[in-house]
Amino acid sequence: MKILIILSISFLVLSAEITLPSNFTTNFQQTITNDNGKVIKYKGAVYFEDIVETTSDDSGVEHSYKRSLFKWNYREPSKKEVCTDGVQLTVVDHDLEQVANYLVDEAIDLKSILSRANKLTLSDYQASYKNIEYLITLDDKNQISKIVYVDNLDNHVKIIFSNMRYNEVFNSNFLVCNAPKGYDRIKG
To answer: What are phi and psi of 71, to 5 degrees?
Structure first.
């Protein structure tokens, strides 16, 4: 499960020079190699949207804040959805007919990640955040094409993105993981 949390957090690792719109969608191929050389490959699509929410306090003063929503739709080797808002993580495993909910230990601190990124070459950036080194590669359109890192479990993770589409419009419910009735519910 840590891998899923790290995936959601790692996608936010960007340099201040990397242009990230308020929403996008992309296909992905992910390879995870453990320290024994076992390789797991995943394929699917990622959806992202920054949303601004407004609340009012007791005195009627409105406060706005931004939340980042991610949805990872895994198609291979199994059908799974992973949704997060940086605080709550929901995993819907359609093969096992299970829904698991977890609290992310810490909220994502995007500003800290951005402030640590360094440009290495024309298309490569390096960021060190919470003891993890990330290599981010951009394509010729300055869009994210690859992220490589070693996670907290010593897994080597490579995520390759293709068909990146910025400024996509989503229905607000689309980025929420909803499971069919009858799925087992697990609290993490």
So the answer is: -135, 120
